[in-house]
Amino acid sequence: MVRELLEMLGEELSSLKREGTTRIAVSEENLDTLRRLAARGKSVSPAPEKKELPPPQIPSAQPERTSLPAENFAHSAPAPAKAPEPEKPKLPPPPVFTLPAGDRETQRAWLRDLVLACPECNAHVKPGKKVVFGVGDVNADIFFCCDAPEAEDEEQGEPFLGPAGQLLTKIIGAMGLSREKVYIGNIMNWRPEMPTPYGNRPPTGEEMNFCLPYLLAQLEIVKPKVIVALGGTAIDGLLGADPARTVGKIHGKWQTFNGIPLMPTYHPSYLLRSNSNKSKRMVWEDMLLVMEKIGLPVSDRQRGYFSDKK
Q1: 222, 104 in Cβ contact below 8 A?
Q2: What pTM was computed for the model?
């Protein structure tokens, strides 16, 4: 249990780094908790005691060396066999399908039924939880894309319902739009499993590749003018993994995905963690570029959001 908690902490810190976080504040109480966990982990697997070895016996003369073929050593002193690591269950190939004829609403309804009935998606959903499918206007100009659902999302089967989603709704409102006038979707249709009932982990490349056809079909239906990729994992899922790429380096710089302009930016959860005017301004400047790209009017008041606050 201690090891699982520490591994989960490591995954969360890695996720924060991908999202652009370079520093986090940790209370003294939380530091004490980490120290206790670390001490408990050491008590579970104590390091073997070191034994003092006798001083080496130095021969008075060097014995004559004999050259032996390397294979002699292989036969006389075989290396201990390493226990094979258990293989992780592999996902099947990504689904292949063709959207039916019809208008956008008809196609979306067909695709939603397909995703909700997907055996692989349902196999990864915990009992009582739901597969998550995109929501919004099928004629939207903006498609907001994240990597995976969170705890609140799998409760209702809808993306961005938790604190990060509430902040995204405020951002959309500041742009002069509403949640109902944009489209919001995830690359993943299920929340990545965790060894514990709490916490989140970023999806693997294999997981995102399996779900990607479902996202591509939503993009084909909506035909947005702009995709907004929220966070480093979503950016990697769409543009391909690149260890040298960070959100801080790429945000605000137009990319292209399947012929659609893509604006990479920070995940709203990053803003919740940092809660600084500087980070809010960075994201807002990205949204101003999106508004200009699709021809939305930008007032002087909107253009000045977060620029004069401290």
Answers
A1: yes
A2: 0.74
